[in-house]
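Design a sequence for this backbone.
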């Protein structure tokens, strides 16, 4: 894949994240500065390589799981939260009178509101808190019956999934992303997570949503949250 195709894949992923609609060549001309014919040729090549798919004839393209993974590994650009958002999150963490658990629960509720995703927290392998599950059902992916069933199974197995994640995580690492088969919460979802740790207590906090998540923004949010805690 050359540089132009890198840019094309990044634009397709970001456009699909925003609109939840297949992306056509005309829509990308301005962003990429090349003709729609060139974009169509590159799209066809990326489709052959398994990074993009065409849901139906004459439609634009959507990222495949392989395309998302390449984007995450090579093209993602973490975006810092807005200053107003940083202040909100910082004020919650500064509640020094509250316990670590209370602070992180308040933080999780605010994060679910800001990100529009579900938030899961593990205070220990089998001590799990979650909030914002209603956000999942507002996503177009979860309007399908099969995805609703999938989310039901995810909710039923939150304890086991968090236990696996808690045991497998290096709590000193920055921010992790799990999609597809690597995601203990289910291959139909994406999870972006990090460790929140002070001198006495550590917990995991993660954003759970469709694979079509705003990785740039969510990575930036979790990096900022991690920076608020003393390691």
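Sequence:
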């Amino acid at each position: 894949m050359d540089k132009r195709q890198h840019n094309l894949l990044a634009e397709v992923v970001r456009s699909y994240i925003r609109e939840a609609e297949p992306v056509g060549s005309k829509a990308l001309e301005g962003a990429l500065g090349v003709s729609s014919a060139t974009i169509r040729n590159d799209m066809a090549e990326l489709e052959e390589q398994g990074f993009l798919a065409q849901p139906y004839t004459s439609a634009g393209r959507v990222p495949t799981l392989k395309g998302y993974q390449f984007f995450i590994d090579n093209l993602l650009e973490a975006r810092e939260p807005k200053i107003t958002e940083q202040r909100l999150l910082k004020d919650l963490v500064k509640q020094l009178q509250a316990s670590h658990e209370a602070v992180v629960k308040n933080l999780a509720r605010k994060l679910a509101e800001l990100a529009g995703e579900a938030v899961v927290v593990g205070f220990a392998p089998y001590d799990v808190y979650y909030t914002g599950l209603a956000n999942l059902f507002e996503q177009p992916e979860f309007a399908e019956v099969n995805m609703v069933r999938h989310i039901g199974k995810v909710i039923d197995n939150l304890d086991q999934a968090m236990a696996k994640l808690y045991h497998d995580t290096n709590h000193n690492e920055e921010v992790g992303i799990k999609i597809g088969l690597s995601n203990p919460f289910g291959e139909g979802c994406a999870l972006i997570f990090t460790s929140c740790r002070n001198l006495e207590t550590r917990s995991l906090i993660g954003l759970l949503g469709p694979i079509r998540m705003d990785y740039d923004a969510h990575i930036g949010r979790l990096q900022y949250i991690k920076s608020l805690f003393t390691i």
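Residues 23 and 60 are 4 Å apart (CA to CA).
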